[in-house]
Amino acid sequence: MDTEEVIEFLGQVPLLQRLPSSSYRKIAHVLQVKHYESGEYVVHEGEPVAGLCFIWEGQAEISDSTNADEGNRFLLRKYDYFGHGSTGCTHQVSVVALSALTCLILPNKYIYLLQPKSIWNADETPENFSLVEHILHLEPLDVNIFRGFTPRDAPAFKQVFGGQFIGQALAAASKTVDCFKLLHSLHATFILRGDNNVPIIYQVSRVRDGNNFATRLVEATQHGAVIFTIIASFQKEQLGFEHQTVSMPPVPSPETLLSMEELQERHMTDPRLPMEYRRRVASKKFVPWPIEIRFCEKYSTREESKPSFSYWFRARGELSDDPALHRCVVAYASDLIFGGVSLNPHRKGGIIASALSLDHSMWFHRPVKADDWVLFTIDSPTAYGGRGFVTGRMYNRKGELVVSLTQEARVREVRQSVESPKPRL
């Protein structure tokens, strides 16, 4: 059998889709192939379990000696499996081929391949990952159900950061499609503020599985309520028409720009700034972002400016080599500053304003490496009715357009009174 064909098959088995993409190749190389004729027993009740068996082609039937009722027949078809979780035990039922049947067997000695240390990396533990990969590491609870957390060393907000919702929901969705299909578009809606101190449950619905496209709907819940939803589309890579009519704007290279840490140091030591301001900056604890940012122009939340902005970003630290992870990291970073640019023309006279994401859409045009520099250019063509609208483009170092984005945010002046958490709409 062709290895790539086997890997694609394994990616369609729900039990395995939570695995890192690197695990599929390891499993493909150790599988054993067995063929059975119609009516032949695949396993007998009471027989020792030799490994995990996947149905590659054909149909089989579970035969239970304690229940011979025809109405309770249970059929096994392509992508079904049996023998999971039974290492060192015996089969509790018999399995009989109903047609010419081909099975792939993962022997017991390789079952450890089903228990990777992370959904992104089969060999490393999450503790060794970069912070953003640690944030995007989910705990699989069941097929289609995952649990996410807000790590204590992540930057703190009054509520769960919107990019965390997007990135974690995409991580959950990505772990329910085969590794040959990659995210190409998403549409997210923020419903309620998230609680940083409570795990987030992500429930994935398999809306569509086609040969080239797959669609997933993900709902995030806390305290029994849906607080965020996203619909994502995945596509198998294909050749096709290509053009790009937009060019990356002329901006300084990231190596020539100051990091956030260097900017803070400059604000603390610049004698031209008021001493009171410098002391206030020095008193604030600086928590390094999981995403490294370098502004291409001056950025201030207290001064009026044009409704546009550009900055370079990349993941802080090296990421595991999984294309799905890199797209999740870019999605995580995409909510940084984005909606707030619609407030730039209104930051005058000491007005303090806030922006909260309402909905967010992204289109991935080309492959992207999130641990290499990506330029994010943002424009806000309009704001009205307490909502600001922004569009964005992301370019790689070669000037290729890799992502297009839009977002609408609730924008308003911050009042002195403190509001209790309420729905955003």
What keyword list fits this structure?
425 residues; alpha+beta; 12-stranded antiparallel beta sheet; 4-stranded antiparallel beta sheet; 7 helices; 20 strands; 16% helix; 34% strand
What would you note in describing this structure?
The longest helix is centred in the middle third of the chain and has 13 residues, at 162-174. 35% of the residues are buried. It contains seven helices and 20 strands. The strands form three sheets. It has a twelve-stranded antiparallel sheet with strand order 9-10-12-13-14-11-17-20-19-18-16-15, with helices on one face. The termini are far apart. It has 425 residues and is α+β, with helices and mostly antiparallel strands. The protein is 16% helix and 34% strand. A hairpin with a 5-residue loop joins strand 19 and strand 20. Helix 5 crosses helix 6 (275-283).
